[in-house]
Amino acid sequence: MERTLILIKPDAISRGLAGTVLKRFEQKGLKIAGIKMIALTDALLKEHYSHLVDKPFFPTITEFMSRTPVIAMCLEGLEAVDVCRKLCGVTNSRNADPGTIRGDFGMSMQANLVHASDSVENGKAEVARFFSAEELFEYDPALLNYLYASDERK
What we know:
Layout: E1 2-8, H1 10-14, H2 18-28, E2 31-38, H3 42-48, H4 58-65, E3 70-77, H5 80-88, H6 101-105, E4 114-116, H7 120-130, H8 144-147
Antiparallel strand pairs: 1-3, 1-4, 2-3
């Protein structure tokens, strides 16, 4: 099973959409392997968004992402990275398809409710950045037999 990082961003927290966003992932059948609320420090933001540090809009990102705590989740499932990205919709919420989290609830490029890892490699790195091994849990969901065919469960 693949693991990926989801961050429920300050706009979702402030708008009272955290539960709605979480519900979308749960209803799809993704397993919550870890979840916590965390205030993002400058150091963590610089590390997480290191690919954007030199961009002129980086200060705007750090200001936005530190307005409120975020909810960090490690989700697990077959092809979890791609599944989560599809559930989220494209980054610019105005262009996101209806039925996606961003398409249904967002109007912004930055205030787009969620961050989702963009690759399996980044998913592993991001989960490790936000969660210690002790904060991640192994268990079988009660409905596992109804989420995957027997030959898909690993």
